[in-house]
């Protein structure tokens, strides 16, 4: 069975999502009717909203909603095409269809994987190494001049802590992730839902980031903790790196 996951800097101007609104036929993917979902007291208001709208708002939603199932399948096909592409020109073309927005000179080394793709927004001159994983049930915003090492995972996905609610493919939720400009994320880093990584910061390899990272700091560890603060002067930073 397909794995089910849960999902802001300036978006490059003139770039819009090319994802279609899918009208899926897989009507057998329905949420269990007997589950009580917290946070849905205003039933009349919630009934007017789609599961995708609730998902992006960080509210409880059903990942088994037919339209969401179809959107994930569509994203899976695009990821496979991206990973199989033989040149950067083809990858660039696919990335414009895959992501909500993508800036200039963005390079992502395959293989990569996303849940929906269209909820990911990337600035200019950003690089991601192998095995980049984006669980974008909520929005993921990545700035410009950002570097990701291999095996980096951004998880906006969340599940209820109460196992009774999780049971029988129960509801899911998420929180957005923001990676600001000029950030370096080392290899094997996991960034969890709701985190903002501040501009100019560095996240050490192997870290699990559970809380916001201040701008111009170095953090590392599980959970990631402050190691040191960095000078904002470029020349001083260059001398420190030597």
From TrEMBL:
PANTHER family: ACETYLTRANSFERASE C18B11.09C-RELATED (PTHR23416:SF23), SIALIC ACID SYNTHASE-RELATED (PTHR23416)
Superkingdom, natural source: Eukaryota
Cross-referenced CDD domains: LbH_MAT_GAT (cd03357)
PROSITE patterns: HEXAPEP_TRANSFERASES
Protein name, UniProt field: Maltose/galactoside acetyltransferase domain-containing protein
Sequence ranges assigned to domain Maltose/galactoside acetyltransferase in this UniProt record: 52-104
SUPFAM superfamilies in alphabetical order: Trimeric LpxA-like enzymes
Pfam families the UniProt entry points to: Hexapep, Mac
Keywords in alphabetical order: Acyltransferase, Transferase
Keyword Transferase attached: yes
Family recorded in the similarity comment: Belongs to the transferase hexapeptide repeat family.
GO molecular function: acetyltransferase activity; O-acyltransferase activity
The keyword Signal appears for this protein: no
């Amino acid at each position: 069975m397909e794995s089910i996951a849960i999902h802001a800097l300036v978006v490059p101007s003139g770039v819009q999502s090319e994802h279609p609104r899918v009208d899926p036929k897989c009507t057998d993917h329905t949420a269990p009717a007997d589950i009580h979902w917290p946070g849905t007291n205003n039933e009349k208001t919630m009934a007017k909203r789609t599961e995708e709208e609730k998902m992006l708002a960080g509210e409880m939603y059903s990942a088994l909603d037919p339209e969401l199932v179809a959107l994930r399948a569509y994203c899976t096909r695009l990821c496979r095409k991206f990973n199989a592409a033989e040149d950067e020109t083809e990858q660039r073309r696919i990335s414009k269809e895959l992501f909500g927005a993508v800036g200039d000179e963005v390079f992502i080394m395959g293989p990569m994987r996303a849940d929906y793709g269209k909820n990911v927004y990337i600035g200019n001159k950003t690089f991601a190494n192998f095995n980049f994983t984006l669980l974008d049930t909520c929005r993921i915003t990545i700035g410009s001049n950002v570097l990701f090492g291999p095996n980096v995972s951004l998880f906006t996905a969340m599940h209820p802590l109460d196992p009774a609610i999780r049971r029988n493919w129960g509801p899911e939720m998420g929180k957005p992730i923001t990676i600001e400009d000029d950030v370096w994320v080392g290899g094997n880093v996991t960034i969890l839902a709701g985190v903002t990584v501040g501009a100019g910061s560095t996240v050490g390899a192997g870290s699990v980031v559970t809380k916001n990272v201040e701008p111009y700091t170095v953090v590392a560890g599980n959970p990631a903790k402050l190691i040191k603060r960095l000078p904002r002067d470029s020349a001083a930073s260059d001398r420190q790196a030597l």
